[in-house]
Amino acid sequence: MMIEFSKVAFVDSVYDLRRLPGQLVPEIAFAGRSNVGKSSLINTLVNRKNLVKTSSKPGKTESLNFFKVEGGLHLVDLPGYGFARKDQKTREAWQDLISGYIISRTALVCVVVIIDIRHELKQLDREMVDWLASNGKPFLIVYTKADKLSNNEQAKQAAALDAALNIRPAERLLFSSQTGQGREELRKRLAEAAGQAD
């Protein structure tokens, strides 16, 4: 399968699981805490500046946003988790939307979990990874904002996060939307994941 990541188009914003598009192609979802750089990562992945709207305000994405990539793949931008300033009802609705989609979607071949490399592992990130693992959902960890650290600091922080998540280095990659670090590797891994769905 030849995935053309730079040929991408918006499909739909889904606020209700009953309105999900047909499961015609493999899907890759992007999950992360609010304001972790999810939109920037997707824009960098597909080589577009504003395909996914970025915001300095966390909690901007409130729906499942589907994008079609040429070659037979959907990218799905999930609402950020753990944003405290939204009311409880809204947060619960988001969680139901995210978990309902991930659990029920047979077309979903990988969840990219985006974690800021600069910080210690947050409880919400640990819970997301543990939840995916316990439900048998394939995932790939991406440590983003790598450009903010020196190479030595990157290695040190990545090793600490690996240990905290109990994963091997092969199960994650380092990424920067500023420098493009990790973009080709991420494209390769996602294309492989999509190919495994055939």
Structure, described:
With 198 residues, the protein is α/β, with parallel strands linked by helices. The chain has a single domain (4-195), classed as P-loop containing nucleotide triphosphate hydrolases (Rossmann fold, 3-Layer(aba) Sandwich), CATH 3.40.50. Helices cover 33% and strands 24% of the residues. The chain has helices at residues 38-45, 88-104, 123-134, 151-165, 183-195, and strands at residues 4-14, 27-32, 64-70, 73-77, 108-116, 139-144, 172-174. Strands 1-3-4-2-5-6-7 form a seven-stranded mixed beta sheet, sandwiched between helices. A hairpin with a 2-residue loop joins β3 (64-70) and β4. The longest helix has 17 residues, at 88-104. It starts with a strand and ends with a helix. The model has no long low-confidence stretch (mean pLDDT 89).
Shape: globular
Proportion of residues in β-strands: 15-25%
Distance between the termini: 9 Å
CATH level-two architecture: 3-Layer(aba) Sandwich
Runs in which pLDDT lies below 50 for 5 or more consecutive residues are: none
CATH class: Alpha Beta
- In terms of structural class, how would the helical and strand content be classed? alpha/beta
Q: How helical, in percent, are the residues?
A: 25-40%
**In DSSP terms, counting alpha (H) and pi (I) runs of 4 or more, how many helices?**
5
Elements, N to C (H/E): EEHEEHEHEHEH
Rg of Cα set: 16 Å
Major sheet characteristics: 7 strands, mixed
- Write down how many β-strands occur, each being a DSSP E stretch of 2 or more residues: 7
Number of domains: 1
CATH superfamily: P-loop containing nucleotide triphosphate hydrolases
CATH topology: Rossmann fold
Give the overall pLDDT as a whole number. 89
Strand order of the largest sheet: 1-3-4-2-5-6-7
Oligomer: single chain
